Amino acid sequence: MRRCTARALAALALALAAAPTRAGAQVSEYHFRPERARRPLDVAVSAGDVVRLAAGGCFKRPDGSLEPLLQPDRAAPQGLIFIPGVTLSFLPIADLAGRDLAVAAPLVTPGPAHVWIDWGSFPRSLYESADATAPPLPCTTPNRAPHLDVTLRRGAARPRERGEPGSLNLELTRYDRNLIPLNPDWVGRARPDVCQACDGFRFESRPGGGESVALLRSRRCTLQRPSIDAGEGVLCPGKRCSSDRRAETLGGHVNWGPATFTGRVSTPWGGSGHVNRDGDLELVLEPEGAAGTIAPQEEAHYAGRIELEFESGRTTRWFRTPWWRELPFRKNSFEVVASLFGNVHRHRSARGPVPALLHAPAAAIGLFGIDNLHEVHSELHPLYAIAIRIEASPSRQRWVAFARRGGMEGECGSRLEHAIDAKRLVLPLHAAAGSWDGVRGEFYDHGLPVPDWKVYAGTDAPSLVLPLADKPCTVVEGEITLERGGGATGAALVAGEPPVSEPMLWNSVPRAEEWCHEEDWFKAVP
Question: Would strands 147-153 and 26-31 be described as parallel, antiparallel, or unpaired?
Answer without folding.
Answer: antiparallel
